[in-house]
Amino acid sequence: MKFFNRKSSQDDVSQDEHIEGERLEAVQSFSKAILPVIACGAGLFSDGYINNVIGSVSTVLSYQYPKTYASSTAKKYVGDIAFAGTVVGQLAFGWLADHWSRTNSLLVSTVILIVFTALAAGSYYHGDEVGMFNILTAWRFFVGIGIGGEYPAGSVACAESTGELKKGSRNLWFIMFTNTMIDWGFVIGAFVPYVVAAACHNEHYGTIWRTSLGIGVVFPLVLFVLRLRLKEPEEFTRNSMKYAKTPYLLVLRFYGLRLFVVSLIWFIYDFSAYSFGIYSSTILANIYDSSAAPLTTVFGWNTVINLFYIPGTMLGAPVSDWLGPRYALALGVTLQAVVGFIMAGDYGSLSTPGKVGAFAVVYGIFLALGELGPGNNIGLIAAKTCATGVRGRYYGIAAAVGKIGAFVGTWVFPYIIAAGGDSDKLQAQYPFYVSSSLCVLSAALALFCLPHIGQDTITYEDARFRAYLESHGYDTRQLGLKKGESLDSIEAVGAGETKA
Fold first, then answer.
1. What is the pTM of this model?
2. Does residue 202 come out as left (phi exceeding 0), alpha (psi in the -120 to 50 range) or beta?
3. Closest CA to 455 of 67, 69, 170, 105
């Protein structure tokens, strides 16, 4: 009996060791697969940070130079010139990502981002205030180019890398390291000026805005080191058009309508999201009376509002796996439209100084639902609804149209506000009416004009596109990288190599 128990105990130990070994192997496999997803996608943090921090920087500049900044043309451009640079970067790096390299394109865009963010923070022009504003504007254009490269190179490689992850959570992890990173960038971009302003006791305005901009260099520096270890994604090695002539006419016939719908939804989303993000501190300053409220008060409430992006994107991420990106997007924008109409109708009571807390909560819910919907899913849809050979350009065009929407929104919103006439209530209500109406349009487009996106859509799209090209006489043997450029195996993370 004792012998039997002893043997049973030994078997149990052996089985336990086997199970523990499988668990350890699974953890190691996950860590190898997730690192490229993080490295490729997380650079979008800089998009959120840099585009949100400039709203606070503009507020500080208006405090520091109340006459010259308000009257300078730079005030009109410093906030949104990065959008123009981003469009250039998205289109340029979309082509480079397809015809050169996913990883090398990422490294170049990261260097551009680091260099010009540092230059923007150090903007100076021999004591000439207007000259300094113009220099700041110029540097931010090039910062935008660096940000633009993160979309077609980084997000595309991130989407391709999720194919190495377990089915059922691939959309979640893509979202966590793309849109969620943008949203954390928005939050940190609001919080840093608050901390710096508090440290400066709401004085030393030059220190506040320069430090707030300069901190934007830190994250891409860390990411640059991580990206030095990346290899090309396997999907890219098999289906790249780096050495093949792109049949643009066939591509347009096959993907033209789909690209138009994806681009239009992205345009609508950025039109509202970035405009509201940039104007949030201004809205709060108006509620609080900017002449009386200290910077820490305005920036503090701005941080609270931006925090609502986080539950929207993080709690919404698994919904994209449960329902699929198309239905998750439609659900988010439909709920956002409802909240937006309610907020517009009751804005008069919400916007009083005594109810700024209620205003922040309702406005925050409005923003959070936008993240659950198109915020999380439009980039995912763009990355997974076309074939690998043209994915960089397809994604770059869609993202560029989105950024054009953001650019247009920052210019159109003042006119929408002005349409309210002398009524402060109507001036604030109109943007919410417009945005909520556009949400309804986005829901319809997603439901009726987009395809289903599953866990293996990237592989399916590559096969479908190959079959289409072959049916039109295109030699698909041209696709893929040369043998020496492909990645046949994954090395240990400790050896310094990961698979992208």
1. 0.85
2. left
3. 170
Q: How far is CA 330 from CA 98, 272, 337, 365, 376, in A?
A: 30, 16, 11, 16, 11
| pLDDT reported for residue 25 | 46
- 55 and 305 in contact (C-beta within 8 Å)? no
Q: Which CATH architecture has domain 35-495?
A: Up-down Bundle (1.20)
Point out the least confidently predicted range of 14-18, 78-82, 358-362.
Answer: 14-18
pLDDT, mean of residues 247-257: 96
Residues near 442 by beta carbon (within 8 Å), at least 6 away in sequence: 265, 268, 269, 329, 330, 333, 373, 374
- Reported residue count of the chain is 500
- Mean pLDDT value across the chain: 83
Are the C-beta atoms of 48 and 183 separated by less than 8 Å?
yes
Measured CA to CA in angstroms, residue 90 lies from 145, 150, 251, 439, 479 at distances of 7, 8, 19, 25, 23
Instruction: Delimit the domains of the chain by residue range.
Output: 35-495
Give the chain as a 3 state SS string.
CHHHHHHHHHHHHHHHHHHHHHHHHHHHHHHHHHHHHHHHHHHHHHHHHHHHHHHHHHHHHHHHCCCHHHHCCHHHHCCCHHHHHHHHHHHHHHHHHHHCCHHHHHHHHHHHHHHHHHHHHCCCCCCCHHHHHHHHHHHHHHHHHHHHHHHHHHHHHHHHHHHHCCCCCHHHHHHHCCHHHHHHHHHHHHHHHHHHHHHCCCCCHHHHHHHHHHHHHHHHHHHHHHHCCCCCCHHHHHHCCCCCCCCHHHHHHHHHHHHHHHHHHHHHHHHHHHHHHHHHHHHHHHHHCCCCCCHHHHHHHHHHHHHCHHHHHHHHHHHHHHCCHHHHHHHHHHHHHHHHHHHHHCHHHHCCHHHHHHHHHHHHHHHHHHHHHHHHHHHHHHHHCCCHHHHHHHHHHHHHHHHHHHHHHHHHHHHHHHCCCCCHHHHHHHHHHHHHHHHHHHHHHHHHHCCCCCCCHHHHHHHHHHHHHHHCCCCHHHCCCCHHHCCCCCCCHHHCCCCC
